[in-house]
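Re: that chain you flagged

S.,

Sorry for the slow reply, it's been a week of failed gels. I finally had a moment to sit down with the sequence you sent. For the record, here it is as I used it:
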Amino acid sequence: MKVNDQAGNPYASLSPSVWRGSTVVFDTFEDFVGRKNRQPDGYSYGITGTPTARALERRIAAMEGAHHCVVMPSGASALITTVMAFVRGGDHLLISESCYGSLKTFGRLWLAKMGVEVEFYPPTIDAGIEALIRPNTRMICIEAPGTVTMEMQDIDAITTIAKRRGVLTMMDNTWASPLFFKAIDHGVDFVVQAATKYFGGHSDVLMGTVSLNDLDNYAVLRETQSTFGQATSPEDCFLVERGLQTYELRLREQSRKALNVARWLETQPLVKQVLFPALESNPGHRIWREQFQGSGSLLSVVLQTPPDEATFGVFFNALKHFPIGASWGGTHSLIAYYPASQQTSRLYSPTNQSIIRISIGLEDEAMLISDLAQALDAYGKAL
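Prediction finished late last night. Pasting the structure tokens below so you have them in one place:
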């Protein structure tokens, strides 16, 4: 890919230009009347993006191996807007039970009340999903590995069945990203990234992206973005464009450290289970090894069960270098807590225990392990 996407520009800077603007003006009456014909790629109003957004979209599409990309204000926005673009009342929608929480909530509390038949399926159903497909099934929503509980899914099996049955597929591929999993090459129709995570990389921007190949679907998605007012700030596009310059270097290093931390955690007596597909002990390891080229920097841990939930506070409050926060994928490590009640309330969960989710950043690996070790020691004394 060329470093610079500004051929013919008299000021072709290495740093991308930030084009701000809400209003596009037209040379003639005829141009104005036909302004909608400029979509999906052209400019008719600022809500669908400026040249700053288009440059970022082209770059991400190339990374994904896709023909088109649409940027949106967040990962949740990308997921929900894509579903709304193609799913209507009377349709049947299949959502993996391990998908991102806001997508599941949207399906359960909004779509179901709009006449959509929403069904949550077991994340490890794989080829068995064919038995769930109905004549009115419109889309299958996938995330691999799953949010928090990290279940793998056989993407190849699901997309092969979906294409044969005429069903669209959407995958949240944020964990592996296009560096480690080219979802388009595996038959996924809509590939979503929470660019908030690895693409931005510095915990200072919210953005989502949807990459796809089909031109007609791209036109529908762009029109839906416009209709819903899902505008993305050009300054945010600039931050993600800049983040992409170090994305591969960051993710390869974070991936390496995350695997080492996961292997160390597996050896700790107070750790009951490490949920991380790159580990040989993980139930999803075979699928990960066969279909993915690497692992993300996010993993989850189940500790030996404490006498009461408050004991987890001893572990978290003992940490000196891990900030407590719900996001992940940035240069700073993070840790988060998900109570047992959240797992027991799910339809299909690999555990009924509380989960600790860890995002590994770029800090010194030995320091991170030492911090976890002393927190586990404090936790053990409280048991």
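What I noticed first: The chain has a mean pLDDT of 94.

Talk soon,
D.
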